[in-house]
Structure formats: structure tokens, C-alpha cells
Design brief:
Number of helices: 13
CATH topology of the largest domain: Adenylosuccinate Synthetase, Chain A, domain 1
CATH superfamily of the largest domain: Adenylosuccinate Synthetase, subunit A, domain 1
Number of domains: 3
Distance between the termini: 18 Å
Largest sheet: 10 strands, mixed
Oligomer: single chain
Shape: globular
Number of strands: 20
Structural class: alpha/beta
CATH architecture of the largest domain: 3-Layer(aba) Sandwich
Bound molecules: inosinic acid
């Protein structure tokens, strides 16, 4: 059963989109299975640049079907805005998009609640993307006030749900902030029902459809959003997102059996970035961190926030690769590290005097982790035009070898720039 998946091995923004884009040619269906419009990917197509968030990267390729599976949380207004952005660029992709009727709907109260709760957390705020992702997933787990896409497209069902939920949510919002915003049930029903009318033709039981397609030998490509270290169960809790953003989310988010996945590719940047709060052992709060931020244009696609930058952390990436059963690694943005005299890779942590190569489970231990760094010679050359591994400067080759050794997986691909052509393939990809 020929399914491939691409997941991030860090805290998101690993340039998974480029790897997915390269693989899309060899696949028939691209599937998003978790997260929502908190993700961000930039896709270049037909001379234009599109910023996508909820839509799968594959959406612009006319030979593939794109699927938003049950595990995704969908803001219908954001979805249509993205689709309209594509239409404005001459790409009406709605005909090849399928949205699961099991996926949950992000409603206006989710965004308001999230803002109120983040404010309440004060200095311990998670630094979320404020898209209502966590509050929607909380609703799903709570079941009582959850709305699924299947409900949204049934006018009466949706209206009845909104009318029963809004008074309760208003009480909650008032308790959190008496001066806070008012919810208007009629307005929400009108706005969301208009969106539902446009979305209805795309809604389907994607689970049965995907299982049928799989049985017929269709090639599936699973596109992970965020990164493994933001996984709700396995990430750096509580500074995580609310879904299973490691490879562990593929099965529960899509309904496709885990054993259907033949190949699991983990994408890691040549360094590390993080957006939002939480410990970051290899963070560089100095000129070098600033240089990396500038060279890598490390600003959030969704929120525009500057990303925190640091050395590559192979304790974290190795952990991510192991929990998801990653077969091989793609190293992204190696070109960003050009120009340094020396580089460092974290190979272990020292936590309260103990050396370890395992990820601590407790936030306090992780906050206490001091990186044990391996020094590697830097290189000065611009490598962004290199397409063969053996043409890379020796120091860059050594860097890639060190990553492979420390993460414990072969490296299949090295990306040295945003364009498809700026890719070094190692072996068969
Ligand atoms: P949420 O997903 O909006 O709840 O945010 C939770 C945490 O995940 C915050 O630290 C966000 O910055 C981070 N996050 C969510 N989506 C992404 C992403 O696509 N890339 C990087 N960080 C993300």
C-alpha cells in the first residue's frame, strides 16, 4: 500500500511544503490530517506566490486530489478566503478539494475564548496563533458544544446548535472579561451558512473514499502540519499545539491504517526555530541568532512573528524521528548556515548534572537542559546553486554527515534554497 508521509521533526516551519511539493508529482492524493489554519506554507506556482494555511500544499497541482481529513479543524471563512486567493490568481482548485464531514468547525467563540485564556495565562501564555485551534480541539474532546462539518452543511442543524451554544459561551466570555465582546447568533448563522453553501459540494466521507482509493493502488501523500515537538501528547507540553503533529497523528487524523505508510520522511531545518513560548535549549539570543533569522527570513507565515533561532538540536530531532518511525531525513535551509567560521550541533543535554540523549518529559527539566554542543567547521561559500552532494564544501558535507549520525537516520535530501531546482538529492528520492 503505497503511502508516503512528510512530517516536521522540530517545532514547525521546517519547510515541509517544499518536500511535499517535490513528492506530489509521484502521488495522486495529498492529505492534511491535523491542525488547521495555524499552519503556514508558501507555494510558488505559475509565477505567483500563494500563502496557504489550511489548504494542503498539493492543491495547486491539477493531477492530485487534496483532502482535509477528520483530524483537521476547519474555519470555513478562512478556508474560503484561501480558495478565493487562489481563484484571484487564476487557480480555481475547489473542484479537486474534499473536506471530511467528520472534521470539526472553528467558530467565532473559539477565537474569542482563546484570546481571553491566553490573556489570563499572563507570563505563561503559550503564544498561540490565535486561530481558535486549541479551543476547537477542546470542544471536540468535550463533545457537548462541538460542531462538525457534517452539521455545518445541514442548515437547520447548524442554526439550532449555534442558538444553544451562544448563550453558554457568552456567559463564559463575560466571566472571563465583563467588558469583552458580544456574540451575535443570527450573524454567525448567516455568515457560516453562506460559507456552508459554498463548501457543501466539497464535503464527503473522506475516510471511506481514501480507503477505497488506497485499495485501488492510488498513491497517498500525508502532509504533516506544525512539527513533532508541538505534538499534544509527545511534544514539549504545555507549549505545544492541540493535535498530534508528529507521525502519530496520521492514523487517528485520517482513518488510514498506520501500516499503509510505506515511507516516513522527517524534515528538519539545518538549525532550529521556534515561535511562541516554551523552553528552547539551543536558542541563540545573540548576533549569531540574529544572523540566522535574517538569512533564513525567519518570520512566521501566519502571524508574522519573528521566530526564535538556535543551533540544530539532535536530541530533539532524534526523539522526533524515533517516535514517528522516520525512515530518512530531509535537511532544509542548509544555505542559511553559510558564512559562519564555526557551527554547533547539540548532541546531548545536561540536566541537573546528568547527561542524557533523551527528551525530558517534564517542562521544568526541559527548561533546565543545557545543550552539549559539537563544534563543526563552518563554510564561507554560497551553496545555493549546488545540486550535487559532492560539490558541497567539505565542511557542509561534514555537517550533513554529523546530522545523519546524531539523528540516526540517512539523509535523502538537502535543500539549499526555496526553488525546486535548489535541491540536492542523495540516492533515490
Ligand atoms: P496553536 O496551534 O495556535 O494553538 O499554537 C500553539 C503553539 O504552536 C504556539 O507556540 C504556536 O506558535 C505554535 N504553532 C502552531 N502552528 C505552528 C506552525 O505551523 N509553525 C510553527 N509553530 C506553530
Amino acid at each position: 500500500m503505497p503511502a508516503t508521509s512528510v512530517i516536521g521533526l522540530q517545532w514547525g516551519d521546517e519547510a515541509k511544503g517544499k518536500v511535499v511539493d517535490l513528492l506530489t508529482e509521484k502521488h495522486d492524493i495529498v492529505i492534511r490530517y491535523q491542525g488547521g489554519n495555524n499552519a503556514g506554507h508558501t507555494v510558488k506556482f505559475g509565477g505567483r506566490t500563494y500563502k496557504l494555511s489550511l489548504l494542503p500544499t498539493g492543491i495547486l497541482q491539477s493531477h492530485v486530489k487534496s483532502v482535509i481529513a477528520p483530524g483537521v479543524v476547519v474555519n470555513p471563512l478562512a478556508l474560503l478566503k484561501e480558495l478565493d486567493g487562489l481563484i484571484a490568481g487564476g487557480q480555481d482548485c475547489s473542484g479537486r478539494l474534499m473536506i471530511s464531514d467528520r472534521a470539526h468547525v472553528i467558530c467565532p467563540w473559539h477565537l474569542l475564548e482563546e484570546a481571553a485564556f491566553e490573556k489570563l495565562r499572563g507570563g505563561e501564555a503559550i503564544g498561540t496563533t490565535m486561530r481558535g485551534i486549541g479551543t476547537c480541539y477542546r470542544e471536540k474532546a468535550g463533545r457537548f458544544h462541538a460542531i462538525r462539518i457534517g452539521d455545518l452543511v445541514e442548515r437547520e442543524v447548524f442554526a439550532a446548535k449555534v442558538r444553544s451554544i451562544v448563550p453558554v459561551k457568552q456567559k463564559l466570555l463575560d466571566a472571563l472579561d465583563p467588558e469583552g465582546p458580544r456574540l451575535d447568533a443570527d450573524q454567525i448563522i448567516a455568515e457560516y451558512s453562506a460559507a456552508a453553501d459554498r463548501i457543501r459540494p466539497m464535503v464527503a466521507d473522506t475516510t471511506s473514499w481514501l480507503l477505497d482509493e488506497l485499495e485501488q493502488g492510488r498513491r497517498l501523500l500525508f502532509e504533516g502540519a506544525q512539527g513533532s515537538l508541538l505534538d499534544i501528547d509527545h511534544g514539549t507540553f504545555p507549549y505545544v499545539t492541540s493535535s498530534n503533529s508528529s507521525g502519530c497523528g496520521i492514523h487517528n487524523g485520517s482513518g488510514i491504517p498506520e501500516r499503509a505508510i510505506q515511507r516516513m520522511i522527517g524534515v528538519a531545518k539545518a538549525y532550529t526555530t521556534r515561535v511562541g513560548g516554551g523552553p528552547f535549549p539551543t536558542e541563540l539570543l545573540n548576533e549569531t541568532g540574529e544572523q540566522i533569522r535574517k538569512a533564513g527570513n525567519e518570520y512566521g507565515t501566519v502571524t508574522g512573528r519573528p521566530r526564535r533561532c538556535g543551533w540544530l538540536d539532535t536530541v530533539a530531532t532524534r526523539y522526533s524521528a524515533r517516535i514517528s518511525g522516520v525512515d530518512s531525513i530531509a535537511i532544509a535551509l542548509l544555505d542559511v548556515l553559510s558564512g559562519h567560521d564555526e557551527l554547533f550541533i547539540c548532541e546531548a543535554y545536561e540536566i541537573n548534572g546528568q547527561r542524557t540523549r533523551n527528551m525530558p518529559s517534564r517542562a521544568s527539566d526541559f527548561a533546565a537542559a543545557k545543550p552539549v554542543l559539537r563544534r563543526i567547521d563552518g563554510w564561507k561559500e554560497d551553496i545555493s546553486g549546488i545540486t550535487r552532494f559532492e560539490d558541497l564544501p567539505k565542511a557542509a558535507q561534514m555537517y550533513v554527515h554529523a546530522v545523519s549520525e546524531l539523528v540516526g537516520r540517512p539523509v535523502d535530501l538537502v535543500s539549499v534554497g526555496p526553488d525546486r531546482s535548489q535541491t540536492i538529492l542523495i540516492g533515490a528520492f
